[in-house]
Design goal:
By secondary structure, the chain is an all-alpha fold. It has a single domain, classed as TspO/MBR protein (Ferritin, Up-down Bundle), CATH 1.20.1260.100. It is built from six helices and no strands. It is elongated, with a radius of gyration of 16 Å.
Length: 159
């Protein structure tokens, strides 16, 4: 399978997580979310769509490049680790909006998003072996999730 096909497949998987997560987001938006006490540095709602679109695209391309590179590695366990860490982080990515927005569980949401950040950092560590360019594509995602973790914590604390 070519690198382009791998990238497209991983982008598709990434956007599947977006679709699943959007169910929770749309369920929780409205009066419940609007009535939460949020910090002054909360980004405007219109910003989230474009940011997440870019991040899902980057994570899929990154994984596609790493997947192609890891398959040529002499130790096949690296590819298994890479796929396992990606799978766990994408599940956590889809789970967070279901917990935070859909269920309104702010502290549990914080736990999920911190676990997501941990797996993103693990993905970066593993990915560095295969493709530094692909790994650098994940850095904005990890930074955004770090920021979102701080925002989740601030909202949970205030409410």
């Amino acid at each position: 399978m070519s690198t382009l096909v791998r990238c497209l497949a991983w982008v598709g998987i990434s956007f599947l997580a977006a679709v699943i997560g959007s169910v929770g987001t749309f369920a929780g938006l409205g009066d419940w979310y609007n009535n939460l006490i949020k910090p002054s540095w909360t980004p405007p709602s219109w910003l989230f769509g474009p940011v997440w679109t870019a991040l899902y695209t980057l994570m899929g391309i990154s994984m596609g490049l790493m997947d192609s590179s890891s398959r040529t590695h002499s130790d096949p366990s690296y590819n298994r680790q890479l796929i396992q860490v990606f799978t766990i982080q994408i599940i956590l990515n889809a789970l967070w909006p279901l917990v935070f927005f859909g269920a309104g569980r702010l502290w549990l949401g914080l736990f999920v998003i911190l676990a997501l950040e941990l797996f993103l950092l693990t993905w970066i560590r593993i990915g560095w072996r295969f493709s530094r360019t692909a790994t650098l594509m994940i850095v904005p995602y990890a930074a955004w999730v770090g920021f979102a973790s701080c925002l989740n914590a601030a909202i949970a604390w205030r409410n």
